[in-house]
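Title: Prediction job returns without error message
Component: structure pipeline
Severity: low
Priority: P3
Assignee: unassigned

Description:
Job completed but the reporter wants confirmation the result is attached to the right record. Sequence as submitted:
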Amino acid sequence: MRASLIQIAVDPDESADARRERAVSLVMDRRGADLVVLPELWPVGAFAYTEFEAEAEPFQGPTHDAMAKAAADAGVWLHAGSFVERAADGTLYNTALVFAPTGERAAAYRKIHRFGFDRGEAVMMGAGEELVTVPLPETTLGLATCYDLRFPELFRGLVDAGAGTLVVAAGWPERRRAHWTLLARARAVENQSYVLAVGCAGTHAGVEQAGHSIVVDPWGEVLAEAGAGEEVLDVEFDPAKVTEIREQFPALKDRRLGLAAPGL
């Protein structure tokens, strides 16, 4: 299976419309990939809190429609990263979208863990409540967004729901880049799953982005890692390796706490 992680740069001098056009072009360049992934809040910037209200979109707004068309035109499964959604009741959400190669929307995930403690996203946005998985022909994706990476119970829930490939769209800051790499590898090892974690490049509201998108296999080995700037990370991986490792080293069967169902 071939995945392309698009580590797009967010430039404050580039409009959201211009960046959407550029993102479409980058997706179109990945024809032949099975899965293409964009990062968190790339239309506005993950730390550009003062822009969230102005750049918020309805669920089926310009980002949704542009990404649906890009997926269909490129013929790829597209995790379109996330955007600032304004729900019908006015609540803002950090919402990720996944589209099938037909352009049909396959899933939407509202970020559960909001970052900022007592400011920013944590107070400006509503929290999602549902774990989301997406069945693909060769694997099942489990969706997570940025700060979610620090909460292992979310990923264990995704694995219990059948996920073998955990996809993390992020706008992770450079000052905590060591945590980014460490946590991506930890989530892969403890869940015996692939982790595809894609970040942004550039600077969001004065916050330098870590970049360094990474693909980790179920044994914790790094298959590919990007640098700090705008880059597309292409990697081939074998989803069958998840089943092989879980059978060879069946640690998940020895769980005693937090079981999804009796007898697991």
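Comment from assignee: result matches the submitted record. The chain has a mean pLDDT of 96.
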